[in-house]
Every structure is written in structure tokens, then in C-alpha cells.
Amino acid sequence: MTPKERIQATLQGHACDRPAVTPIFMAWAANFIGRTYRDYYLDGDVLAESQLAVTRAFNLDQISAISDPWREASAYGMEFDWPADGVGKPKELLMRTPADIDRIKAFDIENAERPRQRVASVAQMAQAVGQTHSVLGWVEGPIAEYADLRGVENTMMDLIDAPEMYLKAAETIVDNAIRFARAQIEAGAEMIGVGDAVASLINPQMYQDFVLPLEKRLFDGIHEAGATVKLHICGDISRNIEHIAQTGADIVDLDWMVSIEAARKAVGPDVTLCGNFDPSAVLLQGSPADVAKAARACLAAGGPRFILQPGCEVPPGTPEANIRAFCPCEGSLMGEALGL
Predict the structure, then answer these.
(1) What is the domain-level CATH number for residue 230?
(2) 46-105, pLDDT tens digit by residue?
(3) pTM (2 decimals)?
(4) Which of 6-15's residues contact partners 24+ apart within 8 Å by CB, and which partners?
């Protein structure tokens, strides 16, 4: 099977020759080709080169345009400092007062530098490996993007004191996200990743009221454009997982603190789960044998609709041998589990 066929078969619940493996690479991939993380997220050519390098080196099943949380925020007008080896730092919030909600407007992807750059990176990667590999585009989810523009603490207060402000802004945020996703689909992405990390911080009722309908509308828009959806919510989503399954996401990523067994019970057999050994304590700080042991446990718990990866991004400084330990490549310690 090709990597793309493997991903598609997994989503459909069909038998595969081996489990798909899709670790999240960002800064590590840049360092792998001798570039900085800032190079990676500000230069679309570096992003594509980095992703192609790790995809080929570790024989991965998916190549990704994930980079940083600030693509859409830049298009809305936020300004940043860009450190060489860290994520961008906002100079100030875009929405400091309720009056600033008028700054949340439709943006033109063609004239928004950083969204346009991601679309171009997707096109480069799709041209290089799109015939054989799954190509993953990326957008921010509704509450994550609102929090990027308003601040996390302010967002939590708005959900209590000014939910109408949040909902008004979020409608425009979702409209922009759908258009951004569709531009990436037209460029060659067959799947769109949606990062909605702040959703792990709210209780189930708030998730149902303020996030679920918006995520569902976003995912419906992506599906209508012909792509599938991978939802990535960093943190412990255990209390919201059964509601997350109602969004229509084709893949739900699980961070390391979420029980795969409990998540499977909550979402049922038809949702593909992806995860989820600890990227810090195991992947960064453990031995190759530790990594392989944790990866085998994930595969045993995940069932047929399961994709293997750490719970979140591969941390900078992770030993290459630890990555090879769980990937289907030279140096793998997962020969039997991955059918190598």
C-alpha cells in the first residue's frame, strides 16, 4: 500500500498492511535540515523542505503544513516579534476591548502573506509527494483563534460575561477558516488539521454551547470541499471526548494524558483515533526501547481505526534514534508491530 492508501483505508476501517505513523514535526524538522524554527514558519520553502526531509527519512505516511498558531492572527492584523528558536510573540492583543470586535473581518487569502505562504507550501509538498502520501493542511479552530486574538484569560471571561461577543467574532473566524482550508485543498491537501487547543480548558457544557456547533460548521465546510478533518486539541480532553466525536472529525488526536481505551469507548468504533505516548517524558527523555514499548501499548489499545504518533509535537532536541524507534524506517524497534 502507498502511505495515502494506508491513511484512507484506516479512515474507512479497512485492513491495512501496517498501522499508519504520522508524528507532528515542526521545530525538530527545521533543525534536521540545519535551519531555525523561525526559518521554518516564516519561509514556506524551508517548511516544505523540512517536511519532505523528515517524511522521507522516517518513512512517514503523511506530510504536514503545520507550523505555528499565528498564520490567521497575522492576517487579522496582529503584529509579532519572531525569535529564532521559539514561537512568535504578539506585540499586543488584537482585541483588547469589546469595541475591537470590529477588527475581526473577512481576510483576503491572496493578499494575506502568511496564509498565502501556507497554501504555497501545501502546493509544493503535494507536487513532490502528493501522489503517494497524504498531504495535511492546517487551520486554527474557532476558540483557539479567538483566544489568539483576545488572550486565553479574556476568552474564559467572555464565555461567562460576554458570550454574544465571542459568538459574533467566532462566526467570522469560522468563515475565514473555511476559505483558508479550501484554498489549501485546492492546492493539494486531502486532509485539513484543525488546532483548537483552548477547547481542552472548558467544561462539557461550555464545549457543547460554544465550541461544538462552530467546529461542526467548520468541518462540514471542509468535507463539502472534498477533504477529511483531523482535530488536534492539546491537553486533557477526557471530559469532552464524547462531544468531540459529534463534530464530524474523521480523526481525533489524543494527547498523552488521555486514555486511549476510554476515548475509544466514548467515541465508538467509527472515529479514527491518533496518538498518544508522552512526547516529553517518553520520546524526548526516554530510551529507544522506552519509546517502542509505549508505541506498542498505543497500538494495542487503539484498535483498527488508529494512527500512531506521540501525543503532540516531537520536541526539539529529541534523539533521532528515539524517533526511528517507533517509525517504519531504518533503526525501528517496531518491526513486528509495524510488519517490517
Answers:
(1) 3.20.20.210
(2) 999 999 999 999 999 999 999 999 999 999 999 999 999 999 999 999 999 999 999 999
(3) 0.96
(4) 6/61, 7/61, 7/62, 7/134, 7/191, 7/307, 8/134, 10/272, 10/304, 10/305, 10/306, 10/307, 11/228, 11/250, 11/251, 11/272, 11/305, 13/269, 13/270, 13/304, 13/305, 15/304
